[in-house]
C-alpha cells in the first residue's frame, strides 16, 4: 500500500480557489464562495425524509442489480 500525504489546509484552499478562478472566473468564484450555507437538518430527520420519498423496489433494483 502506498503512503499518501494530505495537503495542508492553506495549500488545499489555495489550489481550490485557483481552480475555481480558472474554471469560473473571478465574479462567479466570488459568488460561489459567498453562497449561504443551507441549514443543517438533524440526521435522523433527514434520513426519515429520504425514506418517505423512497420507492423501495426501484431502490432495491438499483442497489442489487445483477
What this model shows, in words?
- With about 70 residues, the chain is an all-alpha fold.
- It has one domain.
- About 70% of the residues lie in helices and about 0% in strands.
- It is extended and about 45 Å long.
- The protein starts with 8 loop residues before the first helix and ends with a helix.
- The mean pLDDT is about 90.
Blueprint (SSEs and pairs):
Layout: H1 9-33, H2 43-53, H3 56-64
What's the number of structural domains? 1
Low-confidence stretches: none
Q: How would you characterize the largest beta sheet? A: none
N to C succession of SSEs = HHH
Strand content: under 5%
Any descriptors?
mainly alpha
Q: Could you give a quick summary of the protein structure above?
A:
With 66 residues, the chain is mainly α. It is built from 3 helices and no strands.
Amino acid at each position: 500500500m502506498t503512503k499518501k500525504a494530505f495537503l495542508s489546509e492553506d495549500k488545499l484552499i489555495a489550489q481550490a480557489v485557483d481552480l475555481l478562478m480558472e474554471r469560473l472566473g473571478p465574479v462567479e468564484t466570488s459568488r460561489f464562495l459567498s453562497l449561504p450555507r443551507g441549514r443543517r437538518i438533524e440526521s435522523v430527520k433527514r434520513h426519515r425524509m429520504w425514506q418517505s420519498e423512497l420507492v423501495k423496489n426501484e431502490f432495491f433494483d438499483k442497489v442489487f442489480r445483477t
